[in-house]
Amino acid sequence: MKELIETIVSPLVEYPEEVHVSSREESDRITYILSVHKKDMGKVIGKQGRVAKAIRTVVNAAASTQQKKIILEISE
Prior knowledge:
The chain is of the alpha+beta class.
């Protein structure tokens, strides 16, 4: 899943070398934390959050076979 998120986000940003994904697993969910360069936050979030919503939709579709809820957080 980390590779999928990096593959989606890297072409969108100006600093692809600063795209990092970490994960935190709990009993009922997995949280992926996407960190990008400060200048790339707007590109990843998009107008009215449309890009972020699209990324979350793709991630949730890819994780539909898992029994846990998938959460994607975006941070600097």
